[in-house]
Design goal:
It is a single chain. The chain has 205 residues and is an all-beta fold. It has one domain: Lipocalin, CATH 2.40.128. Helices cover 0% and strands 51% of the residues. The protein has no helices and 16 strands. It starts with a strand and ends in an 8-residue tail after the last strand.
Amino acid sequence: MTRLQVAFLLSTAAALVACVPLCRAQDTVTTHTVKMIMVQTDLTKTLDAKKTKVGDPVTAKLVYESNFSDGTTLPRNTVLTGHVDRVQPSEEKSDSLIQITLDKALLKGGKVIPIKATIMKLHVLVSPFASIQGGDSGTSLSPDSAAPGAAQTGQTGGINGVTLQSDVEQPYSAIFQSSRRNVRLSGGTEMDIAVGELPAKAPAQ
């Protein structure tokens, strides 16, 4: 069995280490240490459990330049890409979910970097006039407002009717759920994502 050991650096003073099963071989165990950084992204296309299908592409674009500890740079507008793993639409007011995995970073010039990505936080912006009317200028869901102990492993909580569940020890990036209606995350939704560069796959023997 091949396992990925994740060192997720939330700050220079603390790190979370977890093991994530990636794929299976017959009698071997390979462990890699991956340091993860936090990046801020925008979801580029709406996810809707009523319309989204398994296998559909999912992309998020970096808002700011970020750097891995080995010096690899993810420039601003780098695209994190992946796919939809699972969809359960709402039927007759039943619960719904969308599970996604982001597994590649696409850089300018065509370079592709394999990544491990876990969505850690959502920010949903509202109308710029909301603050004038006495409302909030934006809403966010953070690990602090979620389940106890979730700050380092992901989050469980709700925002605008959507629940985000994530864990760096899981191979997927996030599960979005809604109660009694279809999950819907609009394009432009801001997401904080823990990202780590994976080692390149060895050529097949």
